[in-house]
Amino acid sequence: MTSGRFLRDGSPGDWPFIRLDLVAGTFVWRPPCSDGLVRCVPADSPAMAVLLLSGEFDAETVPCLREVLDAVRTPQVELVLLDLIGVTFGDCALVHELTGARSRPQRHVLLGPLPRRVARLLALTGTRHTLDIALDDAP
């Protein structure tokens, strides 16, 4: 892994630092305050972005996801696939970011099956059926 580059300035009480690393030839965004990680992997088409999420996503770490969604917001990208299989925890901040992605110009699709905790979170918040979820095995 290469050493990280901080994408935002700030202090711990101000804004979380978001590091951009290069791991195995792909870009990885990670906040230093948790194990949350967003990895942008090569896609079959330049019109598609594939993001692999892993770890915990809460108010402290969701800015990492937002930074990646901003980074793939280019005229060429029409579809963003979000693979959440590695997410071990999410709270209302994650739900807010996922539902907010609907206002972005690209189509956003969550790849399923969703981890049990994420599926339950989306069900409890009533947002599960408002999101595009592919390969979902839940009713």
From TrEMBL:
InterPro entries linked = MlaB-like_STAS (IPR058548), STAS_dom (IPR002645), STAS_dom_sf (IPR036513)
The organism's superkingdom is given as Bacteria
| Cross-referenced Gene3D superfamilies | STAS domain
* Residue span, STAS domain: 46-139
Q: Which protein is depicted?
A: STAS domain-containing protein
**Source organism (scientific name):** Streptomyces filamentosus
